[in-house]
Write a structure and sequence with these properties.
Layout: H1 3-37, H2 42-51, E1 55-57, E2 61-64, E3 68-73, E4 78-86, E5 91-101, E6 109-113, E7 116-118, E8 121-123, E9 137-139, H3 140-143, E10 150-151, E11 156-163, E12 169-178, E13 185-187, E14 192-199, E15 202-209, E16 213-221, E17 241-247, E18 256-261, E19 265-273, E20 277-285, E21 289-298, H4 301-306, H5 311-317
Parallel strand pairs: 1-3, 2-4, 13-15
Antiparallel strand pairs: 3-12, 4-11, 5-10, 5-12, 6-9, 6-11, 7-8, 14-21, 15-20, 16-19, 16-21, 17-18, 17-20
The chain binds 2-acetamido-2-deoxy-beta-D-glucopyranose.
2-acetamido-2-deoxy-beta-D-glucopyranose binds near residues 127, 203 and 204.
Length: about 325
Protein backbone atom coordinates (compact mmCIF):
# COMPACT_ATOMS: atom_id res chain seq x y z
CA UNK A 1 0.00 0.00 0.00
CA UNK A 2 1.32 3.41 -0.87
CA UNK A 3 2.52 5.68 1.88
CA UNK A 4 0.71 8.62 0.28
CA UNK A 5 -2.58 6.84 0.63
CA UNK A 6 -2.00 6.12 4.29
CA UNK A 7 -1.13 9.75 4.83
CA UNK A 8 -4.46 10.65 3.27
CA UNK A 9 -6.31 8.41 5.64
CA UNK A 10 -4.45 9.65 8.67
CA UNK A 11 -5.20 13.17 7.56
CA UNK A 12 -8.87 12.19 7.52
CA UNK A 13 -8.72 10.65 10.96
CA UNK A 14 -7.09 13.71 12.44
CA UNK A 15 -9.40 16.14 10.70
CA UNK A 16 -12.51 14.16 11.47
CA UNK A 17 -11.77 13.86 15.14
CA UNK A 18 -10.69 17.47 15.47
CA UNK A 19 -13.70 18.81 13.63
CA UNK A 20 -16.09 16.55 15.43
CA UNK A 21 -14.86 18.07 18.64
CA UNK A 22 -15.62 21.51 17.30
CA UNK A 23 -19.04 20.55 16.01
CA UNK A 24 -20.05 19.20 19.41
CA UNK A 25 -19.16 22.57 20.81
CA UNK A 26 -21.32 24.34 18.26
CA UNK A 27 -24.29 22.07 18.91
CA UNK A 28 -24.09 22.86 22.61
CA UNK A 29 -24.10 26.52 21.77
CA UNK A 30 -27.18 26.18 19.63
CA UNK A 31 -29.08 24.39 22.35
CA UNK A 32 -28.39 27.12 24.88
CA UNK A 33 -29.47 29.77 22.34
CA UNK A 34 -32.83 28.07 21.81
CA UNK A 35 -34.22 29.23 25.13
CA UNK A 36 -33.56 32.87 24.30
CA UNK A 37 -34.77 32.44 20.74
CA UNK A 38 -38.23 31.33 21.73
CA UNK A 39 -38.77 34.70 23.43
CA UNK A 40 -37.95 36.75 20.37
CA UNK A 41 -40.01 37.55 17.31
CA UNK A 42 -39.06 35.96 14.04
CA UNK A 43 -37.45 39.03 12.52
CA UNK A 44 -34.95 39.45 15.32
CA UNK A 45 -34.42 35.71 15.23
CA UNK A 46 -33.49 35.90 11.59
CA UNK A 47 -30.98 38.69 12.18
CA UNK A 48 -29.46 36.89 15.11
CA UNK A 49 -29.19 33.56 13.33
CA UNK A 50 -27.22 35.29 10.58
CA UNK A 51 -24.80 36.30 13.27
CA UNK A 52 -24.32 32.92 14.89
CA UNK A 53 -23.49 31.11 11.63
CA UNK A 54 -20.20 29.35 12.12
CA UNK A 55 -17.55 31.02 10.01
CA UNK A 56 -13.97 30.21 9.31
CA UNK A 57 -11.40 30.46 6.53
CA UNK A 58 -11.18 27.54 4.12
CA UNK A 59 -7.74 25.99 3.60
CA UNK A 60 -6.43 24.80 0.25
CA UNK A 61 -6.70 21.19 1.49
CA UNK A 62 -9.55 20.95 3.93
CA UNK A 63 -12.12 18.67 5.51
CA UNK A 64 -15.47 19.96 6.80
CA UNK A 65 -18.04 18.09 8.85
CA UNK A 66 -20.22 21.00 9.85
CA UNK A 67 -22.52 23.66 8.48
CA UNK A 68 -21.28 27.21 8.16
CA UNK A 69 -19.76 29.83 5.93
CA UNK A 70 -16.26 29.29 4.62
CA UNK A 71 -14.03 31.76 2.84
CA UNK A 72 -10.99 30.98 0.76
CA UNK A 73 -8.51 33.70 -0.19
CA UNK A 74 -5.43 32.79 -2.20
CA UNK A 75 -2.23 34.16 -0.65
CA UNK A 76 -0.16 32.93 -3.60
CA UNK A 77 -1.16 31.05 -6.78
CA UNK A 78 -2.91 27.94 -5.38
CA UNK A 79 -3.48 25.47 -8.16
CA UNK A 80 -4.34 22.13 -6.56
CA UNK A 81 -6.89 22.67 -3.84
CA UNK A 82 -9.60 20.30 -2.62
CA UNK A 83 -12.12 20.58 0.19
CA UNK A 84 -13.93 17.43 1.38
CA UNK A 85 -17.39 17.65 2.96
CA UNK A 86 -19.02 14.91 4.99
CA UNK A 87 -22.31 14.72 6.92
CA UNK A 88 -24.12 12.05 8.89
CA UNK A 89 -25.55 9.10 6.94
CA UNK A 90 -28.97 10.78 6.73
CA UNK A 91 -27.65 14.12 5.51
CA UNK A 92 -26.84 15.33 2.04
CA UNK A 93 -24.60 18.33 1.50
CA UNK A 94 -25.89 21.64 0.14
CA UNK A 95 -23.35 24.12 -1.23
CA UNK A 96 -24.16 27.73 -2.02
CA UNK A 97 -21.80 30.39 -3.35
CA UNK A 98 -22.10 33.67 -1.47
CA UNK A 99 -19.46 35.54 -3.42
CA UNK A 100 -16.90 34.55 -6.00
CA UNK A 101 -13.93 36.55 -7.19
CA UNK A 102 -11.92 34.39 -9.57
CA UNK A 103 -10.61 34.75 -13.12
CA UNK A 104 -12.29 32.03 -15.15
CA UNK A 105 -10.74 33.17 -18.44
CA UNK A 106 -7.30 33.16 -16.77
CA UNK A 107 -7.58 29.46 -15.87
CA UNK A 108 -9.08 29.68 -12.41
CA UNK A 109 -11.92 27.31 -11.57
CA UNK A 110 -14.16 26.03 -8.79
CA UNK A 111 -15.88 22.69 -9.33
CA UNK A 112 -18.25 20.85 -7.07
CA UNK A 113 -18.06 17.06 -7.32
CA UNK A 114 -21.03 14.94 -6.24
CA UNK A 115 -19.05 12.48 -4.12
CA UNK A 116 -15.39 12.15 -3.20
CA UNK A 117 -12.39 11.58 -5.44
CA UNK A 118 -9.21 10.33 -3.81
CA UNK A 119 -6.16 9.27 -5.83
CA UNK A 120 -8.28 9.10 -8.97
CA UNK A 121 -10.92 6.85 -7.39
CA UNK A 122 -14.53 7.94 -7.02
CA UNK A 123 -17.06 7.33 -4.31
CA UNK A 124 -19.82 6.42 -5.12
CA UNK A 125 -18.51 4.38 -8.05
CA UNK A 126 -20.19 4.96 -11.39
CA UNK A 127 -22.09 1.66 -10.93
CA UNK A 128 -23.71 3.01 -7.77
CA UNK A 129 -24.33 6.68 -8.57
CA UNK A 130 -27.59 7.75 -10.24
CA UNK A 131 -25.86 10.26 -12.53
CA UNK A 132 -23.26 9.72 -15.26
CA UNK A 133 -19.81 10.94 -14.20
CA UNK A 134 -19.77 14.14 -16.29
CA UNK A 135 -23.01 15.28 -14.65
CA UNK A 136 -21.46 14.89 -11.22
CA UNK A 137 -19.15 17.87 -11.80
CA UNK A 138 -20.63 21.35 -11.58
CA UNK A 139 -18.21 23.95 -12.84
CA UNK A 140 -18.75 27.45 -11.48
CA UNK A 141 -17.13 29.00 -14.54
CA UNK A 142 -19.69 27.31 -16.81
CA UNK A 143 -22.80 27.76 -14.73
CA UNK A 144 -22.09 30.90 -12.72
CA UNK A 145 -24.34 29.56 -10.02
CA UNK A 146 -24.42 32.23 -7.31
CA UNK A 147 -27.43 31.87 -5.01
CA UNK A 148 -28.32 28.42 -6.24
CA UNK A 149 -27.87 25.55 -3.82
CA UNK A 150 -26.00 22.60 -5.28
CA UNK A 151 -27.12 19.39 -3.56
CA UNK A 152 -25.12 16.23 -3.31
CA UNK A 153 -26.76 12.83 -3.78
CA UNK A 154 -25.21 11.37 -0.60
CA UNK A 155 -23.48 12.43 2.63
CA UNK A 156 -20.22 13.37 0.90
CA UNK A 157 -19.28 16.01 -1.66
CA UNK A 158 -16.18 17.96 -2.53
CA UNK A 159 -14.89 21.12 -4.10
CA UNK A 160 -11.89 21.37 -6.44
CA UNK A 161 -10.46 24.81 -7.01
CA UNK A 162 -7.55 26.64 -8.60
CA UNK A 163 -6.82 30.33 -8.16
CA UNK A 164 -3.84 32.10 -9.73
CA UNK A 165 -4.10 35.66 -8.41
CA UNK A 166 -3.26 36.40 -4.77
CA UNK A 167 -6.20 38.10 -3.07
CA UNK A 168 -8.82 36.35 -5.18
CA UNK A 169 -11.13 33.80 -3.65
CA UNK A 170 -14.70 32.90 -2.77
CA UNK A 171 -17.15 32.33 0.06
CA UNK A 172 -19.49 29.37 0.28
CA UNK A 173 -22.20 28.29 2.69
CA UNK A 174 -22.47 24.61 3.58
CA UNK A 175 -25.82 23.26 4.72
CA UNK A 176 -26.92 19.77 5.67
CA UNK A 177 -30.10 18.57 3.95
CA UNK A 178 -32.02 15.69 5.49
CA UNK A 179 -32.14 12.61 3.28
CA UNK A 180 -34.61 10.11 4.75
CA UNK A 181 -33.50 7.34 2.33
CA UNK A 182 -29.73 7.26 2.32
CA UNK A 183 -28.22 4.94 -0.27
CA UNK A 184 -24.52 5.59 -0.68
CA UNK A 185 -22.78 6.62 2.55
CA UNK A 186 -19.27 7.10 3.91
CA UNK A 187 -19.26 6.57 7.66
CA UNK A 188 -17.67 9.37 9.68
CA UNK A 189 -16.71 6.98 12.46
CA UNK A 190 -15.11 3.52 12.73
CA UNK A 191 -17.96 2.36 14.93
CA UNK A 192 -21.71 2.33 14.43
CA UNK A 193 -24.69 0.54 12.98
CA UNK A 194 -26.78 1.02 9.89
CA UNK A 195 -29.82 -0.41 8.13
CA UNK A 196 -29.82 -0.13 4.38
CA UNK A 197 -33.19 -0.48 2.65
CA UNK A 198 -33.80 -0.49 -1.08
CA UNK A 199 -37.56 -0.61 -1.62
CA UNK A 200 -38.45 -1.71 -5.16
CA UNK A 201 -35.73 0.34 -6.78
CA UNK A 202 -33.34 -0.75 -9.48
CA UNK A 203 -30.17 0.66 -7.98
CA UNK A 204 -27.06 -0.22 -6.02
CA UNK A 205 -26.02 1.23 -2.68
CA UNK A 206 -22.63 1.17 -0.96
CA UNK A 207 -21.93 1.90 2.69
CA UNK A 208 -18.24 2.63 3.09
CA UNK A 209 -16.20 2.60 6.30
CA UNK A 210 -12.71 4.00 5.78
CA UNK A 211 -11.16 1.95 8.56
CA UNK A 212 -10.26 -1.72 9.07
CA UNK A 213 -13.31 -3.10 10.84
CA UNK A 214 -15.20 -6.08 12.10
CA UNK A 215 -18.72 -6.20 10.65
CA UNK A 216 -21.59 -8.05 12.20
CA UNK A 217 -24.56 -8.56 9.87
CA UNK A 218 -27.59 -8.85 12.12
CA UNK A 219 -30.19 -9.42 9.45
CA UNK A 220 -30.53 -9.67 5.71
CA UNK A 221 -33.81 -9.76 3.83
CA UNK A 222 -33.75 -10.20 0.10
CA UNK A 223 -37.25 -10.24 -1.37
CA UNK A 224 -36.96 -13.58 -3.11
CA UNK A 225 -36.69 -15.39 0.22
CA UNK A 226 -40.45 -15.17 0.57
CA UNK A 227 -41.05 -16.26 -2.99
CA UNK A 228 -39.68 -19.73 -2.23
CA UNK A 229 -37.41 -19.57 -5.21
CA UNK A 230 -35.10 -22.45 -5.87
CA UNK A 231 -31.63 -21.66 -4.53
CA UNK A 232 -29.26 -20.63 -7.23
CA UNK A 233 -25.89 -22.37 -7.21
CA UNK A 234 -23.96 -19.07 -7.13
CA UNK A 235 -24.47 -15.56 -5.92
CA UNK A 236 -24.63 -12.53 -8.08
CA UNK A 237 -25.36 -13.97 -11.50
CA UNK A 238 -28.62 -12.10 -11.71
CA UNK A 239 -30.91 -10.88 -9.00
CA UNK A 240 -30.31 -9.24 -5.70
CA UNK A 241 -27.46 -9.71 -3.29
CA UNK A 242 -25.21 -8.06 -0.73
CA UNK A 243 -21.46 -8.13 -1.02
CA UNK A 244 -18.75 -7.27 1.49
CA UNK A 245 -15.75 -5.62 -0.09
CA UNK A 246 -12.29 -4.74 1.15
CA UNK A 247 -9.63 -2.56 -0.43
CA UNK A 248 -7.34 0.39 -0.03
CA UNK A 249 -9.04 2.87 -2.36
CA UNK A 250 -12.47 4.50 -2.20
CA UNK A 251 -14.10 3.12 -5.37
CA UNK A 252 -16.22 0.07 -4.43
CA UNK A 253 -16.08 -1.24 -8.00
CA UNK A 254 -12.29 -1.61 -7.65
CA UNK A 255 -12.36 -3.41 -4.31
CA UNK A 256 -11.96 -7.11 -3.55
CA UNK A 257 -15.00 -9.27 -2.75
CA UNK A 258 -14.70 -10.73 0.74
CA UNK A 259 -18.14 -12.35 0.94
CA UNK A 260 -21.31 -12.56 -1.13
CA UNK A 261 -24.63 -12.94 0.61
CA UNK A 262 -27.59 -13.84 -1.54
CA UNK A 263 -30.03 -15.55 0.82
CA UNK A 264 -32.01 -13.98 3.59
CA UNK A 265 -31.02 -14.85 7.13
CA UNK A 266 -31.28 -13.49 10.62
CA UNK A 267 -28.78 -13.99 13.37
CA UNK A 268 -25.34 -12.53 13.36
CA UNK A 269 -22.71 -13.29 10.75
CA UNK A 270 -19.35 -11.75 11.51
CA UNK A 271 -16.51 -10.81 9.19
CA UNK A 272 -13.20 -9.08 9.92
CA UNK A 273 -11.76 -7.04 7.11
CA UNK A 274 -8.20 -5.77 7.59
CA UNK A 275 -8.27 -3.13 4.88
CA UNK A 276 -8.26 0.67 4.87
CA UNK A 277 -11.72 0.67 3.38
CA UNK A 278 -14.61 -1.72 3.98
CA UNK A 279 -17.85 -1.61 2.00
CA UNK A 280 -21.27 -3.22 2.41
CA UNK A 281 -22.85 -3.07 -1.04
CA UNK A 282 -26.35 -4.03 -2.05
CA UNK A 283 -27.33 -4.75 -5.64
CA UNK A 284 -31.04 -4.45 -6.20
CA UNK A 285 -33.15 -5.35 -9.24
CA UNK A 286 -36.18 -3.33 -8.15
CA UNK A 287 -38.42 -6.40 -7.87
CA UNK A 288 -38.16 -6.65 -4.09
CA UNK A 289 -37.79 -4.76 -0.85
CA UNK A 290 -34.24 -5.53 0.24
CA UNK A 291 -32.85 -4.75 3.65
CA UNK A 292 -29.62 -5.36 5.49
CA UNK A 293 -28.75 -4.36 9.07
CA UNK A 294 -25.22 -4.38 10.39
CA UNK A 295 -22.92 -3.13 13.14
CA UNK A 296 -19.25 -2.38 12.84
CA UNK A 297 -16.30 -1.60 15.06
CA UNK A 298 -12.63 -0.89 14.58
CA UNK A 299 -10.33 -3.90 14.32
CA UNK A 300 -7.68 -3.68 17.02
CA UNK A 301 -4.03 -4.58 16.61
CA UNK A 302 -4.59 -8.08 17.99
CA UNK A 303 -7.31 -8.74 15.42
CA UNK A 304 -5.03 -7.54 12.68
CA UNK A 305 -2.24 -9.84 13.92
CA UNK A 306 -4.60 -12.79 13.91
CA UNK A 307 -5.57 -12.04 10.33
CA UNK A 308 -2.06 -12.83 9.15
CA UNK A 309 -2.01 -15.62 6.61
CA UNK A 310 -5.67 -15.25 5.85
CA UNK A 311 -6.59 -14.27 2.32
CA UNK A 312 -8.13 -10.95 3.39
CA UNK A 313 -4.81 -9.98 4.93
CA UNK A 314 -3.07 -11.06 1.75
CA UNK A 315 -4.89 -8.72 -0.54
CA UNK A 316 -4.90 -5.72 1.74
CA UNK A 317 -1.73 -5.63 3.80
CA UNK A 318 0.84 -7.81 2.05
CA UNK A 319 1.56 -5.37 -0.78
CA UNK A 320 3.75 -3.03 1.31
C1 LIG B 1 -25.51 -2.36 -10.21
O1 LIG B 1 -24.25 -2.99 -10.22
C2 LIG B 1 -24.15 -4.06 -11.15
C3 LIG B 1 -22.78 -4.69 -10.97
O2 LIG B 1 -22.55 -5.06 -9.65
C4 LIG B 1 -24.35 -3.54 -12.55
O3 LIG B 1 -24.30 -4.62 -13.47
C5 LIG B 1 -25.69 -2.82 -12.65
O4 LIG B 1 -25.80 -2.22 -13.92
C6 LIG B 1 -25.82 -1.76 -11.57
N1 LIG B 1 -27.18 -1.25 -11.56
C7 LIG B 1 -27.44 0.05 -11.72
C8 LIG B 1 -28.88 0.42 -11.65
O5 LIG B 1 -26.60 0.87 -11.92
Amino acid sequence: MSVAFRVHFYFFLICLSALRGESRYLEDNEISQDGIFSLLNSEIKRELSEDIIYRRPLRCIDMLTMEGQFTFTADHPQLHCAAFFIGEAQENIGIEYNSVNIDCSGGDFIKVFDGWILKGEKFPSSQDHPLPTYERYIDYCETGSIRRVIRSSQNVAMLFFRIHTPGNGFTITIKKIINPFPCNVISQTPEGSFTMVIPHQHRNCSFSIIYPVQIKIAELTLGHFNDLQVKKPRCGGAGDFVELLGGNGVDPSKMFPVADLCYSFSGPAEVKIGCDNTVVRMVSSGKFVNRVSFEYRLLDRRDLEKQKGNSVEDFCYSAE
